[in-house]
Design brief:
The chain is mainly alpha-helical. It is built from 13 helices and no strands. The protein is globular. The N terminus and C terminus are likely disordered.
């Protein structure tokens, strides 16, 4: 069945509602993570979230396709495990771990630098061309990060926990590595829903191993888990990993990619605002300036790379981009945006 093009797809209210869902849901996942890890060990929390979400997606795919369902090959399982380990284990696991001590708004701003790392790693390991605008965006992005974490490096006022900060800084590097491997080297299941489900399940298993290695199973106290953390985990599972992903896939089919990509700029802003309102996280001048600089750098990089890649990006049979790196990733797996 031919995929409807954005020019012939629904416009108006449905598209704007879909965009609002991406803005609010993915922007709020940082808040959800912060609440969930208050009483649930971070790696185990993320393991439960993604394993169950992936299992639901796979079950739905099998039920929908019936006898026509084609299970992944051995190579697809292997490559999905690598991508899942990087995106889910390294990317999302480090976010959950870091948000134990780093405010959710600051975490969101640092994770927003993911396009910076995609551009750098793509150039270093794959020889991808960097437009001048992208180089400018990279430099500006690092300036924004320096403004945000500078006090932590020099022990000044507003310094962040070094271990939590390190985890947050590692997250976009792992996420970018997984995105580039998925789009340039990996052989993944051809159906994006199946690919996402497999990566979530395998990434969830990786997170469970990380939890075991760090002693989270031994330290887990079921009785100490708060109702707020359980609700937050369910929100992340249902809204962040299932509903928003479904909306994202639909938006890719019916709306122009540059419009869909705006969530990459809006999500950090939503996260900072929600962190301040719900968790009383401080928003000082340094955070505002650093946030503006980082969001500007992301906009420059995504715009520059989008212009370079758009002519060679094709669409799969269900409308998802075949080049994962061509579409920016937020904080929801497989197509990188699905896991937030």
């Amino acid at each position: 069945m031919p995929t409807p093009s954005p020019t012939s797809a629904p416009r108006g209210a449905p598209v704007w509602i879909g965009l609002a869902v991406l803005y609010l849901v993915w922007g709020s996942t940082y808040l959800g993570i912060a609440i969930a890890v208050e009483t649930i060990p971070p790696f185990l929390m993320a393991a439960v979230r993604f394993f169950l979400a992936g299992l639901i997606l796979l079950t739905w795919s099998i039920a929908r396709e019936g006898r026509a369902f084609v299970p992944p090959t051995r190579r697809e399982w292997r490559d999905s495990a690598i991508v899942g380990a990087l995106l889910i284990g390294g990317g999302m696991g480090m976010v959950a771990f870091g948000e134990q001590t780093v405010p959710s708004g600051i975490a969101a701003l640092l994770i927003a630098t993911m396009p910076v790392w995609v551009a750098i790693l793509g150039r270093v390991f794959l020889g991808e061309r960097l437009p001048r605008m992208a180089v400018v965006g990279i430099v500006v992005g690092f300036v924004g990060v320096a403004i945000l974490v500078g006090p932590s490096a020099f022990g000044g006022a507003g310094a962040l926990d070094p271990l939590g900060l390190a985890a947050i800084l590692v997250s976009p590097i792992a996420w970018s590595s997984g995105s580039l491997y998925a789009s340039h080297r990996a052989v993944l299941p051809p159906r994006p829903l199946v690919a996402t489900g497999v990566q979530m399940v395998l990434g969830g298993l990786v997170l469970a191993v990380m939890g075991a290695v760090t002693g989270e199973f031994a330290a887990l106290d079921i009785g100490a888990i708060s109702r707020e953390s359980v609700v937050a985990l369910l929100y992340l599972l249902v809204m962040g990993s299932l509903v928003a992903f479904t909306v994202y896939g639909w938006m890719l089919r019916v709306a122009p990619l540059p419009l869909v990509a705006t969530y990459a700029y809006v999500n950090p802003v939503v996260a900072v605002i929600l962190g301040a309102i719900v968790l009383d996280e401080a928003i000082d001048l340094r955070t505002v300036v650093a946030g503006a600089v980082i969001v500007f750098s992301v906009a420059v990089i995504v715009t520059a790379r989008g212009r370079m890649q758009a002519p060679r990006t094709e669409r799969a049979s269900d409308g998802a981009p075949t080049d994962v790196a061509a579409s920016p990733a937020p904080t929801s797996a497989a197509t990188p945006a699905a896991t937030r």
